User: What shape does this take?
Amino acid sequence: MPDSTSVSVDLEELRALMAVTFELAPEEVTDDAHFTQDLGMDSLITLEIATRLEDRYGIDVTDDELKTINTLAGVHELVRQKLAAA
Assistant: This one.
């Protein structure tokens, strides 16, 4: 049985998911690329990210949570925490 306190989320899988959402190549979605300033995130992309995360990982993600996260590393940590809490 896996240890729920150390949930692993594949960063490269998450990077690919974000790349599809932003319509970019995965290498353009670096760990610290700022979603709004560097990748052009707007409210529609925010909604699409939430939907894709919910579909892929089975977690609930609010717009408010995503508004506070600006990088792939931040999304990775959010997903990891939500899966660990499930």
Summary: The chain is about 55% helix and 0% strand. Residues 4-85 form a domain with the Non-ribosomal Peptide Synthetase Peptidyl Carrier Protein; Chain A fold (CATH 1.10.1200.10).
